[in-house]
Every structure is written in C-alpha cells, then in structure tokens.
C-alpha cells in the first residue's frame, strides 16, 4: 500500500485535467485504506473483549494511522502547492481546496504521536464502558439492558435502574477521569503545536465551520431564553400524564409507554422495514439491501461497544449500521437515525461526487438522520398499534426532537469550558457539567439529592472522548429537520422528494445551499428557535 502512496505522491501534474485525474486516483486509494481501517474498527466494536480483534484494531491505530497522517499532509501540501489547484472549478472543488489549504497550514508533525496516544485513550474508554455490567434480579446484565429499564411505566423500576446506572458511572469514574484529564492536556498541546492558544479555537479552524464561536454562544443564549421556558411547560404535560408531583431524573425517558415495542432484533428490523415501506420505496429498498448484505448489527449483547453509528465503506460504496440497545423506544430511534445517515451516504455514492468522509460536515449529515426520524413518526403504529399508545409514541418522538435542541447545546457549552480551561480538576469539571445541566436539560427536573450523579453523568457521552466538539451540530440540524417536518405535515411527497434531493447534493457546496435544496434554511436565529419551540409544544398538546 505504501508503494501506491509513494507513486501517487511523486506523480507529475502538468495540467488542470491531470490534477483532476490525480484527485480521482487519490480518492480511490484512500477509500481502499479507509475501508480496511473501518472494517477492523467494526470488528472490534462488535466484540470489544476479543483480544485478537483489539490488537489488530490498535495496530492500525498506532502504526498505520500515523503513517497515513504523514501521507495525508504530503498530499495536502502537493495539492496546495500545485499551480493548477487555483484553476479547478469552484463549485466542484472550492470547499475541498479551502479545507486542504487550511490543513496544510495547521499541520505539525509533533502532533502525530499525540494523535496516536489520543486514539489509545479513546479505545481504553470504549473498553471501560463496554465492560460495565450490572446485577439485576440475581443476574448479570449489560449496561444497555438496564438503560432500557428507564422506559418502564413502573416508576420504582425506573428509579432503581437510574440509580444502578449512576452507581456504575461512579465505579468507573476514577479511570474515566484519568482518561479525560490526559485527553484535555494532549489536545491542548496539539493546539499549541499548531499555533493556537486553545483546542477550541484549533478545532473551529480544523472543522472549517461555517459559523463562528460567537454564533455558538448566541445559540446557547437564544435556546435558554426561548426554548427552555417551553421545555418547562412540556415537563408539566408529562408530570400530569405520569401522575407525579415532582419530575425526577428517572421520569424524563419515554416512560409513558406501557410496554417494550418489540421482543427481539428481527421484530425491530421487520418493523422498521414496514415503516420505511409506508414512507418511500427507495428508503425500503436501501434497508432491504443492507439487511440482505449483512451490513447491520443492532442486537444488544455483552462485550459490545455502546451507542450507535453508521460506518462508511467508501471503496465498496457501502455502509455498516451499528447499535447496541435493548428493546426500547430508543432502539427504534437509534436504528432510524443511523438509517438516515445510510440513505444520505448512498445518495452521495450515487452522485459520483467522490464523497470523502473527512469533508462531510456534521451539520449536513445530521439533517438527514433527524429528518428521517420525524418523517417516520406517523408510522410508529407499526410498533404501537393501540390508538392511545400510538399517540403517546408520537408525543415521545416530539419530546425527543425538542430535547435535541437543548441537550446538545449543553454539551457544546461544556466543551467550550473544558478546552478553554485546560488545567481544570475533575471536581471542577463535574461542577461545571452540573451547572450547565441545571440550566438546560435538567432545568425542568428536581435533582435534589442527586447532584453528584448528574455532575458525573458526562462520562456516558462518547462524543466528549471520541468526537470533541461534535454536539452543536445536532441542534443546528434539528432546527432544519423540524422545518422539513412542517412541510411533511402539509405535503409528505414534497418533503420526501426534498429530502432525497438535498441528500444527493454535492458535499462541496456551502451548508446553506445544501439546506436550501432540502427546502429548509440554515438558520439558528432567535426567531427560528422561538417558532420551532412553539411548533413542537403545540403538536404535543394536540396529541394529549
């Protein structure tokens, strides 16, 4: 493989057309390497206690990835210095050119060993979380099994599960704190090496964000001003439904539903396939293909990494859908969400744009996953056939949609603080997370007596470890998805066509253009937040 990299790196480029051909060869070569690395990552996630799979995965992370990082830097430099790069078509190559020029300027070889160590720490974190087991009714159960108990309509079971999960956090917290302490220091040093004063500013440049740091703070403040009051109104709705006087931490999950929506993974897959079939033939066909090719693993089991992800396999132009949830409302959402990513990727593979995941912006990727969740909300009767339960399921889906405007912003603000205060202590970190949580997602909840547990609960979010500063994108894209949902309620066919058109747009276009072609605005202004908040509460109140 290194021979191929060397040949391509040394290749002469004497015209715009030759540069275009060189870029195509580069895409194919890196697609081959990326798919190999991703395949080993999938194998590791599916059986995280398997030492052979772990060793192979770590070998690629500690040996192959650093080598690729060096070659990537050389390729970026070659492209940036090529006189023909400036003559490439702006619409097709403008964004990629901007990214590569910026990366070339920011690259520092001192950061390569830091990246290696960063990946080792992330792997260690994944192993710790995957290894959590909890005693439940005399049996040893996985973390995801107990988490599904938070959906129980029985409040005593919910509280017991919440306390058990919190206790499991506290057991592993010393080790996780050590990992986060080192990650913050490593990332701060990366920023210093690249000429930045902190990791937050470094990441904004690295991500080539199309919004500013100040835009983030304005977004936080606008949601706190306009969405949080509606969030509190929504809590009163659920308090009445549950017949409780105080909304406690174990009451905020989808616990108004009377039973688990499915019994096994086949029921889950078949049910979602039916939902897709009632929505759009292309959606159903893509899912049938994924199932037939074995490109999916959503079965809950021990020794499997937590969470959900849609992996891209760029060489074969495929995806792999992965999740680890017990039978629950959240398991349905996780599968549909990742399917939204899958459909987006397949549309990208089909448009011959030469999609490369490092250029796909999260604000775009999450638009199609959130939108698919909302466009399937009227098909939840597949899992909840009784009329009253169907209404409750729809209401829970809208509650989730609203939470995706709020919780991600708390996570974003938390990370701003983490990386602009790199010398903080674990105690200060927990205190800051508690403070921000009380302002946002727990603003409507009585957490008296559980402040320590809430302050420590950040350890559950793998984004803080593996994908730093990947949070606010959920909230931005949710605003776009809710705009598309408004269209869907009036004209489903139009909304679905806009979804497919937007998902097919060249990744090189500005985010605002991609959103516009999806029929929505790339807009997180105060007025939009206020309007969307009222839209959600009105739907939920209508479903009562």
UniProtKB/TrEMBL annotation:
InterPro entries, A to Z: Pept_M3A_M3B, Pept_M3A_M3B_dom, Pept_M3B_oligopep-rel
Q: Would you say which domain of life the source belongs to?
A: Bacteria
- Acyltransferase as a keyword of this entry, yes or no, is no
Q: Coiled coil located at which positions?
A: none
Q: Give the Peptidase M3A/M3B catalytic domain ranges.
A: 151-494
- A single Pfam family it belongs to is Peptidase_M3
Q: How is the cofactor bound?
A: Binds 1 zinc ion.
Keywords attached to this entry = Hydrolase, Metal-binding, Metalloprotease, Protease, Zinc
Which Gene3D superfamilies does this one have?
Answer: 1.10.1370.30
User: Which cofactors does the annotated protein need, by name?
Assistant: Zn(2+)
Q: Which family does it belong to?
A: Belongs to the peptidase M3 family.
Q: Which NCBIfam families match?
A: M3_not_pepF
**What is the name listed in the Swiss-Prot or TrEMBL entry for this protein?**
M3 family oligoendopeptidase
UniProt organism field: Viridibacillus soli
């Amino acid at each position: 493989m290194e021979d191929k990299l060397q040949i391509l790196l040394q290749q002469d480029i004497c015209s715009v057309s030759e540069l275009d051909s060189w870029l195509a060869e580069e895409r194919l070569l890196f697609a081959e390497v990326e798919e190999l690395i991703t395949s080993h990552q999938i194998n590791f996630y599916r059986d995280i206690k398997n030492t052979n799979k772990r060793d192979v995965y770590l070998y690629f992370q500690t040996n192959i990835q650093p080598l690729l990082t060096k070659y990537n830097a050389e390729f970026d430099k070659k492209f940036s210095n090529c006189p023909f790069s400036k003559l490439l078509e702006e619409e097709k190559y403008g964004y990629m050119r901007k990214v590569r020029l910026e990366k070339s300027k920011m690259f520092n070889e001192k950061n390569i060993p830091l990246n290696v160590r960063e990946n080792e720490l992330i792997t260690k974190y994944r192993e710790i979380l995957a290894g959590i087991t909890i005693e439940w009714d005399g049996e040893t159960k996985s973390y995801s099994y107990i988490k599904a108990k938070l959906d129980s309509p029985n409040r005593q079971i919910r509280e017991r599960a919440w306390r058990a999960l919190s206790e499991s956090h506290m057991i592993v917290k010393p080790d996780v704190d050590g990992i986060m302490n080192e990650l913050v220091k490593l990332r701060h040093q990366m920023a210093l090496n690249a000429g930045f004063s902190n990791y937050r500013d470094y990441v904004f440049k690295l991500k080539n964000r199309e919004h500013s740091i100040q835009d983030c703070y304005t977004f936080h403040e606008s949601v706190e001003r306009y969405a949080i009051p509606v969030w509190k109104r929504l809590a009163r709705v659920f308090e009445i439904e549950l017949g409780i006087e105080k909304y406690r931490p174990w009451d905020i999950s989808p616990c108004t539903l009377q039973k688990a929506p499915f019994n096994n993974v086949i029921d889950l897959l078949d049910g979602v396939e039916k939902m897709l079939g009632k929505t759009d033939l292309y959606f159903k066909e893509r899912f049938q293909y994924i199932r037939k090719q074995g490109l999916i693993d959503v079965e809950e089991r021990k020794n499997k990494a937590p969470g959900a992800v849609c992996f891209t396999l760029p060489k074969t132009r495929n995806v792999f859908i992965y999740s680890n949830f017990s039978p629950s409302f959240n398991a349905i959402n996780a599968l549909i969400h990742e399917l939204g990513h899958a459909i987006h990727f397949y549309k990208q593979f089909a448009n011959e744009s030469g999609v490369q995941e490092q250029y796909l912006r999260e604000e775009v990727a999450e638009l199609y996953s959130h939108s698919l969740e909302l466009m399937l909300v009227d098909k939840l009767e597949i899992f909840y056939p009784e009329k009253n339960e169907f209404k409750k399921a729809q209401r829970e889906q809208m509650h989730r949609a609203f939470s995706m405007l709020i919780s991600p912003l708390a996570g974003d603000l938390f990370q701003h603080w983490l990386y602009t205060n790199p010398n903080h202590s674990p105690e200060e970190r927990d205190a800051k997370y508690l403070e921000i949580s009380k302002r946002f997602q727990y603003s409507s909840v009585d957490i008296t007596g559980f402040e320590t547990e809430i302050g420590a609960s950040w350890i559950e979010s793998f984004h803080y470890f593996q994908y730093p500063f990947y949070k606010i994108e959920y909230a931005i894209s949710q605003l776009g998805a809710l705009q598309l949902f408004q269209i869907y309620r009036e004209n489903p066919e139009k909304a679905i066509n806009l979804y497919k058109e937007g998902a097919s747009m060249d990744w090189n276009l500005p985010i605002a253009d991609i959103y516009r072609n999806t029929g929505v605005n790339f807009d997180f202004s105060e007025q939009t937040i206020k309007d969307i908040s009222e839209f959600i509460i009105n739907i939920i109140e209508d479903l009562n």
